[in-house]
Each structure stands twice: as structure tokens, then as C-alpha cells.
Amino acid sequence: MAPLHYRGVRIRLTRALVEERLAVWRNWAAEETRRFEQLYGAAYRERVLQWFARVKLRRGGSRLPESIDPHPARDMSRRMKVAYAFATDMAATFKLNTMILPQFEQSIHGARVVGMMCFDDNLYALRAGDPFGDRLSKVAKAQNILLRPCDQCAIGRGLGEGEFHQCGTGEVRPKGMIEGAQVGCFPRLYAALRRADGVQIITL
């Protein structure tokens, strides 16, 4: 079989290598397979399996199937743009802290996140001194992610300075929250997101 090139690395794509990769990635009990799917997702693992299966069936001098980027989530130019609204119970403590945040830190999340808005008790994940909150603050600063805690929710939990009648005006200020958190309501969220075209808002 022809050599496989990836970013200057030359790998001889032999039938033995193809069969070995197929055997590993088809075996969910294998630690390597579970790690691969955790990093890149089940859909991408299936694409890779299909690609290697086509390589195995290749005959004669026919060209290799179209190559697959081993790190698809790292190509910023092709990512969809999303904004998250954490609105349900434990959305921040579970989905954000244990799933999305680690993916941010490994640059494998798969979407370009332009903003996040937190409601109700999900604001507690943005308290200053919270280990997850501090990590999120660093990621948000590095990746230019808007952090928008609900102003009314912040006042009600002692995390905002202002009065309830000021909610939505931009006059409420964060209190005891991580660096980068800008309390506000829908008008200010939409105004900020207007600068990014084609954003999908996902509620969790």
C-alpha cells in the first residue's frame, strides 16, 4: 500500500497496520478505543473505521480514499459557532465542569464557543475561588468567550451588586465572581452575540 503522509510524518500504510487499527478501534473493551472516542466522539470513530475499511478493500493502483484529519476539532476555520445557555439543574456543575471545560482545555470541543449564559444555581460555578470557575476564566480569556451570568439570578444569590429593577439595563455589576464574568440579561447577550455571524444558541 502507498505511504500515508500527515504533517510531515511518513507512515507506511501496510495491510498489517490497517488490520491492526481496525481490530483495536472495533473493540470497545480496549482502553485505546475508549480514549479515542472520548477525545473525538463516536461519530468520528465510525468515520475512521469506514476509512480504514475502504483502504483494506483497495485494489491495485487505485488512489487512497479521501484522508481524514486526526484532529478535526482543532481546525478553527471550520467550526460551527455556538453559545450555551446553562438553564437546567446542574447544567454547569455537570455538563460544563466535567464535560465541556475539559474539552476546551484539550482543544477538542469541536465547536467555536462565543458565549455562555448561566441561570439560577448554575451561577455558583462562576464564583471566585471555585476551582472549576478559575479554570473556566482562563479558558474564556484565552479563547475570547463571553461569560454572561444572569443579572437577576446574581442579585438573588449575592453575586451581583444592584437592584432588581436594574436587571437588563447593564447597570448590575458582578460581585465575588471570576474574572471575565459580565452579569446581564438577554438584551446585552444578544447585543454581544450580534458581532458573531451564524451563532447557534444551545440550552443545556
Quick take:
The protein is built from seven helices and eight strands. It is α/β, with parallel strands linked by helices. The protein folds into two domains: 3-70, no CATH class; 74-203, Hypothetical Protein Ychn, Chain: A.
Q: Please state the second-level CATH architecture of the largest domain.
A: 3-Layer(aba) Sandwich
User: What is the CATH topology assignment of the largest domain?
Assistant: Hypothetical Protein Ychn, Chain: A
Domain unit count: 2
SSE string, helix = H, strand = E? EEHHHEHEHEHEEHE
Terminal CA distance: 46 Å
DSSP strand tally: 8
The outline comes out as elongated
In terms of quaternary structure, the protein is: single chain
Strand fraction: 15-25%
Q: Strands across the major sheet, in which order?
A: 5-4-3-8
Annotated CATH homologous superfamily of the largest domain: DsrEFH-like
Uncertain regions: pLDDT < 50 for 5+ in a row? Answer: 1-9, 59-77
State mean pLDDT (0 to 100 scale). 81
**Main beta sheet strand tally, sense and closure:** 4 strands, parallel
Task: Output the CATH class name of the largest domain.
Answer: Alpha Beta
How many DSSP H or I helices? 7
Would you tell me the structural class of the helices and strands? alpha/beta
